[in-house]
Amino acid sequence: MQNEKDKLNEIKPGEDTVVVPALGARELKAAREAAGAQEQPGAEDAAPAQAGPAEAEAGAAQEEDDVASRGKKLLDKLDSILYNPETHSDEFDGIDDEDGELTERDFHPIRPRRDGKTGCLGGLMYFAFCVSLSVLLACLAWMAASDVIALNKEPLESTITLPESIFTEGTEEYVDDEGVTQTREVTYADMDYVASSLKDAGIIEYPWLFKIFCWFADATTKVDPGTYTLSTNLDYYALVSNMQTASGSMVTTTVTLPEGFTMLEIFERLEENGIASVEDLMDAAAEYTYSYSFLDWATPGDASRLEGYLFPDTYEFYQGMQAASAINRFLLNFHGKLTADMYSQADALGITLHQAVIIASMIESEAANDAERAQIASVIYNRLEAGMPLQIDATVMYALGEHKDYLTEEDLQVESPYNTYLHTGLPAGPICNPGLASINASLQPASTNYLYYALDTESGTHRFFSDYNSFLAFTETQDYAGQ
């Protein structure tokens, strides 16, 4: 391939004129200096000798050859100045004669690249950006750290409630002290709800940061249902610790449950005081497993199995606490009231402890005072022994699901295993939750021959009778419908 610049220096055969490209001032000066060096005569040319015609002709030819030789050397010198094969060998690689003519763009000088030369202003801008970013990140880190460790926060105390509905049951594996992998039941809290509640209460600033902390601290299973009074002085770790059952931050409420309350009445009062909802309490009563020997006869699935065992007393509950935990307090209290003598007394009467509780519940519902309890118990045992229906109004009211001042004939015909007017023997289960006095009366009845009793509306106490005629004569003097 012929170099395009070689074309410009090409000498056409047979012509004496040499065509060279236009040269700049520097190039012309360099060419002239080179030519001058070539044309300086040597020592042998200083005094030319005279020659004849033949010698003159030969000399002319030699001179013509010398001129041609010097011209060729001059062109080579110019070409070496204008084109260096070592530095321009790659510039025209791949260009052949068919690539077309050179354009003006091909002769434009290549401007030097300015990559990396941002200048002083660019450097200052970059430095300012780095400083600003560092300050921003430092401020964010400080704000986040202040929230995590409760540093320099405005004093604030607020109350939040974590309902049972945000908790789900699950299982997890753990390794016991002997190195054996075991499985246990746990409850998982909805940490989105927890973090949002803390944010809304003003306790924390960054819910997302609190959730990240809880994930690393495995706090999902460490939070319990309840109502808690928390403050901004607590760091994240302390917040998790204080949202647990029996912690000092749980809000407590004192509730008194009187003797004779049914299970539904007890649950309604707990709901009124913010302890737990009736629905959650009923579910826990039916499904939760309570490990007490006095409940060995019962199987999960029916909430009524706990009727009679929710011992009436004054309790201090945590607001929003787990329903099963609230119920367990009643059962634990009942368990504490039981003695070995009670079991012996039940055996002596030929009944089970559960039957004694059923009798105690009827005594609790009927007795006007403590003195009557043992006598009412004697009436119940005497009628059971005689095979007579107990005909206790309180059992019918339990079947109806409401308390009435008096029962109509229609009420007495309600079909229910709790209707002791229609069915002989004990009702299907306890009709209320008796106190200790009624339980003791059921295990230690008075020794009487009473088969009947009736309310004296004037004194508000009961009168006891051994025969039906005496009982009937007394009731005719009373206006029970006007109570």
Could you explain how this protein is built, in words?
With 483 residues, this protein is mostly helical. Among the domains are: 157-250, 2-Layer Sandwich (Dna Ligase, domain 1); 253-338, no CATH class. The chain is 44% helix and 10% strand. The protein has helices at residues 4-8, 25-39, 53-82, 85-88, 119-148, 191-200, 207-217, 236-242, 263-272, 278-287, 323-337, 340-349, 353-366, 370-386, 393-400, 436-443, 468-475; strands spanning 157-162, 167-175, 181-189, 226-231, 252-256, 314-318, 452-456, 461-465. The strands form 4 sheets. A two-stranded antiparallel ribbon has the order 1-4. A hairpin with a 5-residue loop joins strand 2 and strand 3. Helix 2 (25-39) packs antiparallel against helix 3 (53-82), helix 6 (191-200) packs across helix 7 and helix 14 (370-386) runs parallel beside helix 16 (436-443). The longest helix has 30 residues, at 53-82. The chain is rod-shaped. The model is unreliable at 7-20 and 41-51 (pLDDT under 50).
